[in-house]
Specification:
The chain is of the alpha/beta class and 310 residues long. It is 36% helix and 21% strand. The strands form 3 sheets. Strands 3-2-1-4-7 form a 5-stranded mixed sheet, with helices on both faces. Strands 10-9-8-11-12 form a 5-stranded mixed sheet. The mean pLDDT is 96. Bound molecules: zinc ion.
Length: 310
């Protein structure tokens, strides 16, 4: 029997917990909506219950259970704490300690628990079982209500000092641009994230709606305003990707997230603008692949667990 790890994927709308074996097969899974409470313990209680429920399906093992947690950011990897923007009850929440404490009474030996941001877990998942499984090095990017990312370099997650490396949404692509929510100026996210595309279209008189999915549908149907704002957004994203590729010397990117699912209407302008920024020899002809997994974050949390050493 192959080893099973416990994977936990924490998002603003749902928390998923699964047992995953070393082939990437999910052998048990529980998904719970994220409780919209301001009490940290009320938000944690259903997650703890889900962890214990999934654990009952585990094949008994004498080895320590390895647990990977992927969470919406920001995260503090060394401290084991998370402060997800969309979960206001959790600011500096000690998720690693709380999960370990939840599991301890049910296990013969203490578990090993690792933590990474959701962008990092997305990259780990696509690298392990998805669009990047043939690659030694790649950057995973999530384009949805924000722009997140993570890098796998030489088959290892590049976490960074605090676990937030390759925060591509907050690379500045316009030093004279407006102030971003992060405090910087002209960040990628201000132009490329789904709500920014919609806001830009509204400013130009677009009446469709309500969201980026509707906008990309209109673009596919040939709406000139939708095509224009997507072109601007993808130019910003292309500049951010080219910057990251130039810094890390990585040639392959895997792009996922809700907005990317619109397909060619996103990938077409993105690849076209990349030719304008990725111009040095070693990054020319960058590859941007569509993500293929539905649950890359959860599987990436499992991949993270498999890297934990006793
Ligand atoms: Zn920013």
């Amino acid at each position: 029997m192959s080893e099973q790890v416990l994977a936990i994927d924490i998002g603003g709308t749902k928390i998923a917990v699964a047992l995953v074996d070393d082939a990437g097969t999910i052998t048990a899974e529980v998904v719970r909506p994220t409780v919209p409470s301001l009490d940290p313990d009320e938000v944690f209680a259903p997650a703890a219950a889900a962890v214990l429920e999934v654990l009952t399906a585990r094949t008994p093992s004498a080895r320590p259970l390895r647990v990977g947690i992927g969470s919406a950011g920001p995260v503090d990897g060394p401290a084991g704490t998370i402060s997800p923007v969309n979960i206001p009850a959790w600011r500096g929440f000690p998720i690693v300690r709380r999960v370990a404490e939840t599991l301890a009474p049910a296990l013969a030996v203490p578990p090993l628990v690792g933590l990474a941001g959701d962008g990092h877990c997305f990259a780990l998942g696509e690298h392990w079982l998805g669009a990047g499984r043939d690659l030694d090095s790649m950057v995973g990017l999530v384009l949805s209500t924000g722009v997140g990312g993570g890098a796998v370099l030489d088959n290892r997650l590049f976490a960074g000092t605090t676990g937030n490396a390759v925060h591509l949404g907050h690379i500045s692509v316009n030093a004279w641009g407006p102030r971003c929510v992060c405090g910087g100026h002209g960040c990628v996210e201000m132009y490329a994230r789904g709500p920014a595309l919609v806001a830009a279209a509204r400013q130009r008189g677009w009446r469709g709606g309500p969201d980026a999915r509707a906008l990309t549908a209109d673009a596919r149907a040939g709406d000139s305003t939708a095509l224009e704002v997507i072109d601007v957004g993808m130019r910003a994203l292309a500049a951010g990707i080219a910057t990251t590729a130039t810094e890390l010397d990585v040639r392959a990117f895997v792009l996922g997230g809700g907005v990317s699912r619109a397909g060619e209407v996103i990938f077409g302008p993105l690849r076209r603008h990349l030719r304008d920024f990725a111009v040095l020899d070693y990054v020319r002809d960058l590859e941007v692949r569509p993500a293929v997994l539905e649950n890359a974050g959860l599987l990436g949390a499992a991949a993270l667990a498999f890297t934990l050493q006793v």
